[in-house]
Design a protein that fits this description.
Elements: E1 3-8, H1 15-23, E2 28-31, H2 32-38, H3 45-54, H4 67-75, H5 78-101, E3 107-111, E4 126-131, H6 134-145, H7 149-158, H8 162-168, E5 171-174, H9 179-199
Parallel strand pairs: 1-3, 1-4, 2-3, 4-5
Helix pairs in contact: 6-7
Catalytic activity: 3'-dephospho-CoA + ATP = ADP + CoA + H(+)
Pathway: Cofactor biosynthesis; coenzyme A biosynthesis; CoA from (R)-pantothenate: step 5/5
Function: Catalyzes the phosphorylation of the 3'-hydroxyl group of dephosphocoenzyme A to form coenzyme A.
Length: 202
């Protein structure tokens, strides 16, 4: 059984950058954001259920889900949001489990932005948190997404606090500084994880 390392961090912490550094070591990456898109891809049961519930207006002309329309629909309707979460969360979890089963690297990385909030670390053997201070998160996200600082602060408020994530972590990567430091932290953890895999009963 492949060892599963959960990777999480708040918005703007650099999860993708860290995941890509692990991918350079040929480690399989299972990304919840990608899985979430796959379970509502054209032809999927997820998309059919959403279309049955909300009508074909929820689709783009190419048959894909109109995400901005869906966001607008659930924004003003909590019961719809709960219905959608109830539909998609089990599908996402099931697909992530299937992807973990198919991983061929010594360990795999399960990247979930809201891992701690949704208690998904139960799916992992260890939890790796990418940690940055709030100022850095705000600066990076405003720059990356072209949004204002207030919007980023409201997203931060809706996520687990920095301390809650650190309390749940087995391993921590500090990403306040430059890329060279990040690479060396990933290199060290990669070696640690490989050593742990060798100790695991096969």
């Amino acid at each position: 059984m492949t060892m599963v390392i959960g990777l999480t961090g708040g918005i703007g912490s650099g999860k993708t950058t860290v995941a890509n550094l692990f991918a350079d070591y040929h480690i399989d990456i299972i990304d919840a954001d990608i899985v979430a898109r796959e379970v509502v891809a054209p032809g999927s049961a997820g998309l059919k259920a959403i279309e049955d519930k909300l009508g074909s207006d929820i689709l783009l002309t190419d048959g894909n889900l109109d995400r901005s329309k869906l966001r607008a629909a659930i924004f003003s309707d909590n019961t719809l949001k709960d219905w959608l979460n109830g539909l998609l969360h089990p599908m996402i979890r099931e697909k992530m489990q299937a992807d973990i089963q198919q991983a061929t690297s010594p360990y795999c990385l399960l990247v979930v932005p809201l891992m701690v909030e949704n208690n998904l670390q139960a799916m992992t053997d260890r939890l790796l948190v990418v940690d940055v201070d709030e100022q850095t998160q705000i600066a990076r996200t405003t720059q990356r997404d072209g949004v204002d600082a207030e919007q980023v602060k409201s997203i931060l408020a809706a996520q687990a606090s920095r301390q809650e994530r650190l309390d749940a972590a087995d391993d921590i990567i500090n990403n306040n500084n430059d890329g060279a430091q990040l690479s060396s932290q990933v290199a060290t953890l990669h070696q640690q994880y490989l050593a742990m895999c060798q100790q695991q009963p096969s």
